Amino acid sequence: MRYLFLSLFLVFASFFSSFGMTSLSKNKKHILVIHSYHQSFVWTDSISSGIESVLTPLENEIETFYEYLDSKRFVDPIFIESFEQKYKLLCSKVTCDAIIVSDNNALNFVIKNRARFFKNIPIVFCGVNNYNPELLKGESQITGIAEYAAIDSTLMLMHKLHSERKILIINDRTVTGLANKVIIMNALPNLEKEMHIEYLDNSNMKAIQDKVKSLSEEWMIYLAPFTMDADGDYYSFNDVVGTVSRASSVPIYGSWDFYLGKGIVGGYITSGYMQGKLAGELALSIVKGANPNMIPVLEKSAVSIKFDHSILSKYSIEESHLPEGSILINREKTFFEKNITLFKNTLRIGLVVILLLIVYSVQKHRQKELLEEQNLELDQKVEERSRELLEANDTLNRKNVEITKQEELTKLAYLRLKAILNNSLVGIIVTDGEGKIIDQNNRISEILGCDKGELLGKNILSTFLSKSNYDILMNEYQQLQGSKALIRNEIPLKRMDESVLWTKIYISEMLYSHIENANIWVIDDVSEIVENRASLEKKTAELKESNEMKDQFFSIISHDLKGPLSSVLGLLEIITKNPEIFSDEERTVFMGNCYESAQDMNDLLDNLLRWGRIQIGGVSWNPEIIDLNQIADSVLKTLINVAKAKDIQVNNIIPLNLKAFGDENMIKTVVLNLINNAIKFTHKGGFVEISAEVENNRVKVLVRDNGIGINNDDIQYLFNIDKKIQQEGTNKESGTGLGLIIVKDLLEKNKGTIHVESHLNMGTSVYFDLPLKALS
């Protein structure tokens, strides 16, 4: 949950930083860039660099904004919903001329919300895996660059350079990994005719290291994009290529530029930078008037043949064997290439030095002649002024001594006052008659979270105090008579990071000031006191609720358990003390009644203990993907004899393989209670059925019967332990009244809800729902 809060905070922080703090120009075109992944992710940053290479030189004409869905690290629906809310607000204030989206998740997000937020805005995509024209069916004004990964070409290149070696393919099972697996599997039938290939995509990083270390010289490695191993651990591309290359003694190849130069030989390389550059060029042409419907999607682009020269040398691969047009990086430079900048700079410096020497010589000669003439004139003037200055100097020396003494005393007093002000444990500011801050101490900067001196010159209303609170304080302050001094407790102030703290404020008139109506504000942080009081109130409420629950628990024991127990004890006492007055048949009937009462008390006690364990968290919750059809079948087998005894037909019409997410034992208890209740309150010859369907990304389950129904006034109390609803079944079956209360608590533990619809003598329908998959 803390990651969810963190993800939500990051979403809104990025929004306010990108748009709230940026002044949008109406004279510029606006391009919004939405990335699928997070900033600092190598692939994402390389795409951004490509876009910037096109758009940054035009920043006087085009404003570009970058947003990140962060879908590789955060997949919670609430996180995605927060983005939808963000863009709803954004699109109400900002008109975009084009949108660039990178990778599949961002494209899917924009298409899904296009009618709501991005209507009629042209879209350019890049980095999209497994592109198919069907993906854009029904959409207009969309074009872009598909991410073409020439995996099969790289594998054939590896075979050409090392025809005797076998190939180990390392891949992961992320969305990107699965997309690449499709490409690999489609190519394997043709590739395996010429080479031996082994595929590895279901191992943790330790197992991958061990596998790579064990490879003999007859092997080589193809490394696909890898970010998450079988244990669910996340790795950056740098981590993966570094780990594999350190463990490997055989050549490693790849098809993406974020591996090149970091341990792989090379291959047919897909470039994120080129994807972004092409996308930026398409977006630029669109905002300048091009029709996106007339621009075809580039399905095979941004790929070049590149090799790392240092790795070629390591494995003795001749450059002559490389394909024509290959690009080499990390080639060792000649001495001249290494020092060409030095040679150029040396030549430039030499020419500049010669020119400066010539200019200096000419200027020096002219200055010498001019200075000789000026010196003669100055000598005469100096003699005249020297006499005057000697006289004035004596007078000034006497005055300076007096002024210096006064300055030292003033400076000492100022430093003493400043030290007292800055070392105060409370915040202090001074305002003029219009509320402008003219002085502050260091403590107020700490309280408000700003830099020292940052408040100077600002109005108190534009910094931390709301207008309504300022008006209240000033009205009360102005009403004071004589020497003005006002103290107010628990006034909320706004910090620079938008958080709120509670303070105690003391306002007084600043006497002997040259500024009219100047005031001193003394501010003390009392947030801890307010928070402690709120925490105490919360704990008091929790204790009150706990005591009420305990009272309810003991009330049930004293009323529903003690009463029947007293009746049984009384009946047994009569039979035990006077056995001779009862016949065997009467004793059998009495004992049967005692047994039924004891059984009812046992059921009540079991339900009380189960309910009590739920309330105190004593029931362990082990959620997983569960099969609802199988759970229903298991429950029906348990209750088949109960249904047959009343000739009730029970049907399970839940679709096969319908899955949900929850604790299997808890959900089985829920279904058992609901079907058992339906049988109990259905007349002989009736029917009970359980069904389910997927609705709004949740599984909705229905248990329906045609029994005696429930009074509408009683439905509201079915899940309330204060007012248990107990009713005999159609065959006078008894109940504890706690079954549905336990069902509700179990469903809430599994992120589910429940509600009941019923009509007297027509039947009852009980609905509950569960999530399709795990919620963060």
UniProtKB/TrEMBL annotation:
It is found in: Membrane. GO terms for molecular function: ATP binding; phosphorelay response regulator activity; phosphorelay sensor kinase activity; protein kinase activator activity. Its main location: membrane. One of its GO terms (biological process) is osmosensory signaling via phosphorelay pathway. It catalyses: ATP + protein L-histidine = ADP + protein N-phospho-L-histidine. Keywords: ATP-binding, Kinase, Membrane, Nucleotide-binding, Phosphoprotein, Transferase, Transmembrane, Transmembrane helix, Two-component regulatory system. Residues 556-774 form the Histidine kinase domain. Gene3D superfamilies: 1.10.287.130, 3.40.50.2300, Histidine kinase-like ATPase, C-terminal domain, PAS domain. One of its GO terms (cellular component) is membrane. Residues 413-484 form the PAS domain. Its EC number is 2.7.13.3. It is a multi-pass membrane protein. Pfam families: ABC_sub_bind (PF04392), HATPase_c (PF02518), HisKA (PF00512), PAS (PF00989). NCBIfam families: sensory_box. This is histidine kinase.
